[in-house]
Amino acid sequence: MEIAILLFDGFTALDAIGPYEVLTRVPRAEVSFVAAEARVHRDMCGAGIVADRVIDDVVAPDVVVVPGGPGEVAVRTNDHVLSWLRAVHETTTWTASVCTGSLVLAAAGLLDGVPATSHWLAREELARLGADPVSARVVVDGRIITAAGVSAGIDMALLLASMLEGDLVAQGIQLSLEYDPRPPFNAGSPDVAPPVVVELARAKSRFARARA
Amino acid sequence: MEIAILLFDGFTALDAIGPYEVLTRVPRAEVSFVAAEARVHRDMCGAGIVADRVIDDVVAPDVVVVPGGPGEVAVRTNDHVLSWLRAVHETTTWTASVCTGSLVLAAAGLLDGVPATSHWLAREELARLGADPVSARVVVDGRIITAAGVSAGIDMALLLASMLEGDLVAQGIQLSLEYDPRPPFNAGSPDVAPPVVVELARAKSRFARARA
């Protein structure tokens, strides 16, 4: 089972590494980081992660995962990457995104009228690109699975693992990652975070700046 | 504020990237991956992450984070790294570990008699190395903060962010990562996972193999 996680400059590291850590533990899975060029890609804060394979060499992955991050804006107009996504989606078992990675799937034309999610600050943009935005942690529609912001990729990948190899496998992975989350605060969604925190996040958002 | 995350070959990627994603969002924080050599380090499943700085050049970080992973065994006998950890711990605000990274702190002599945690499968080994193992998600003792397995580094880093810059900052980071976890199963600790899943994990553990 071949699993390809797309990298690009300016991605969000945890968007990619959360699913990576889960999916590498799926039996028979071969997970690799892929990109238009096989080289180190820098995340939005400067961390370097290696794309070991070029997308042109990855022609029929079973699963594709597209992370988000501010660099997604450039990917949305990168015909090389968008064409590859359209081509491999023809035969994937699952085509997945984390956070604003769904904006890339939408730009590739894969989410027209499709129920999908994204980072909570990006759902208006997701609608603008033709998808049917859903306020949910993970959305499954046909062979497309989209996750909300950043950390939601871990939940998405566990669901993927269960759909690929069954619940016991997914539970074993969850236990190996000791994924028994205990956030010290209850501020992980705009519905529960303190209003001042939500307003500050909205004001700082690159999507708010784009509208201004 | 200088934050150094240690890399070594055979680390667990999410142990490092979970805290990275949180701590890079702390105002004024400069987060870098550091190692004995400035080069790509491969995690336990092959992902390459770049250590941009050598530990010899990082003499007084405010925060040090040590991830775990099977490669930690070699680090436990690496005098260069252990000496560096002992030296920088003299002046850190916080010395932190994720998962079996606490075994490295223990090997450096920083956990003698200190309440600390680790991956649930590694707590006996942690005791053998002189620490006082605690079954908890995150343990704070003086300037030392240790997290349980893999994903616990996210919770640990949010707590660190709040102790460094206050609760509102930590809550803003949690919201930006949309860290409102919704695991599809309740199997993240041996207390709640199905017994067959727990037994399989114990049987496969490298610590079980070491005892056999």
What is the global morphology of chain A? globular
Distance N terminus to C terminus of chain A? 45 Å
Seen as an oligomer or otherwise, the chain set is homodimer
Secondary structure: helix percent of chain A: 25-40%
- Tell me the domain tally of chain A: 2
Q: What fold name stands as the CATH topology of the largest domain in chain A?
A: Rossmann fold
CATH architecture of the largest domain in chain A: 3-Layer(aba) Sandwich
Q: Name the chain pair whose interface involves the most residues.
A: A-B, 63 and 63 residues
Tell me the fraction of residues in β-strands of chain A, as a range.
15-25%
The stretches of 5 or more residues of chain A where confidence is low (pLDDT under 50) are none
Number of separate helices of chain A: 9
The main pleated sheet of chain A reads as: 7 strands, mixed
Instruction: Summarize model confidence as the mean pLDDT of chain A.
Output: 97
The secondary-structure element order of chain A is EHEEEEEHHEHEHEEEHHHH
Tally of strands of chain A: 11
Alpha-carbon Rg of chain A, integer: 16 Å
Q: Key features?
A:
212 residues; 37% helix; 11 strands; globular; alpha/beta; Rossmann fold; seven-stranded mixed sheet; homodimer
Description:
- 2 copies of one chain form a homodimer.
- Chain A is α/β, with parallel strands linked by helices and 212 residues long.
- Chain A folds into 2 domains: 2-181, Rossmann fold (3-Layer(aba) Sandwich), CATH 3.40.50; 185-212, no CATH class.
- Chain A is built from 9 helices and 11 strands.
- In chain A, the strands form 3 sheets. Chain A has a 7-stranded mixed sheet, sandwiched between helices. In chain A, strands 3-4 form a two-stranded antiparallel ribbon. Chain A has a two-stranded parallel ribbon with strand order 8-9.
- In chain A, helix 1 (13-23) packs parallel to helix 6 (152-165) and helix 6 (152-165) packs antiparallel against helix 7.
- Chain A starts with a strand and ends with a helix.
- At the A-B interface, helix 1, strand 2, strand 4, helix 6 and helix 7 of A face helix 1, strand 2, strand 4, helix 6 and helix 7 of B.
